[in-house]
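Hello Y.,

Per our agreement to keep a running log of every chain we model this quarter, I'm adding this entry. I've kept the format consistent with earlier entries: sequence first, then predicted structure.
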Amino acid sequence: MTIISRGKARLAGVLAAGLAAALLAAACSSSASKSAGASTTAAPSATTAATGSTGSTPTSSGVVAKPSRGFDGTTIKVAGLGLLASFAGAEIGTEARFKRANDTNELNGIKLQFVEFADDQASPATALSEARRLVTQDQVFAIVPDLSPVNPGAYLTSQQVPWVGYAFDNTYCSAKPTTAIWGFGYNGCLVPANPPTMPDSYAALYKYISAKTGKANPTAVLFSNDDQSGIDSTKLQAVAASGAGFKVVSAQGTLPMVVSDYTPYVQQWLTANGGKQPDALVCLLAVQCVSVWSAVKAAGFTGTYYGTLGNVAALAKAMAGTVTAAFYNTQPNPGLTQMEQDLQAFKPGTTPVGYSNVAAYFAADMFIDALKKVGRDITPQAVQAALATQTWSIPGFVGPTDYPASTVGDSPACTELLLDDGTNYNVVEPFTCSTKTYPVKSTG
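Predicted structure for the entry above:
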């Protein structure tokens, strides 16, 4: 499956046995199956559970809270959704942020309960059935984190269930800015179906490669999977790359999700520049980027290879010599320190995984921020309205993400470029945000 630059599309990929072990060791799941997460939550009272009381409940701060689906007046119940094979342990980020909120009484007597991370198996049918189960049986208030590439957006919207996460599909998107949407990404809409413009997401990569090659217009090949998401992502990302200054010599979604021999594809990519190698190969995939890197390196590629997985410690050796992006500031800052402390407090030994538990942590923080804005009227409708008009950030660490502008595209586009030396990820272009956009020419 496909992931486009800046994490912008369907995330999955085929996990090789060794890589899967490394990723699972780096972020083992705390609640892959149904779990109340006792250290992070407070269960509903026995009286409420037994009677289904709908009366207003005074909180410890004296604020009267009105119960609704997934909220009994004292506890808000949420669950996660995504592909477990690629995101084992992602929910640790959400549970860690919830734990701090609960421990510090951040929501004035309201507690957050994480139920489970449901496995959608990257199947639309499974995603729908799991969402229905979470809503009708578990009565969840919201989906946090949402890491699904196949969200049942129509169903969740009809049931008025907010979902907050990493926007791997276009259920987070609209043609024009709107406050009617129910899905929110911590860095906005990432895979619009037919966007009028593309964000300036290649500025850092262009600056690095232009300086490295001495070329005003370095050449680039973009590639992805042979599904509709991959075809669309390469087309749209070519617009952003060209806008930044690259000469895009090939942008195609032709790679199968399961490949026994990469040789034919590597030969195409390495001769796409008029028979010569391009200056950059941009892999718009997920874990499959690791196997592709091994193949192009063996074929003698000498340019810059850009992968999408971010700074994952378990992959540093395998991806040595490549560059990647972080969509938050990885240099010392108070927000990063707080997140690392929260992860350790919930599960000692947990390391940040950019596309997984970090994204889940951001989703939880965004959700908590919306709850603070709502105040006493804690309903799914009120939280949706808060999210739809929210400018979210953790200052100096991530964001800002501005809604409703971000229903059309990530606004602004924020990126840090990292070089993997085999042991560490070194910043080569610092975290910056850009409000530039590039028009997408209609093909109709």
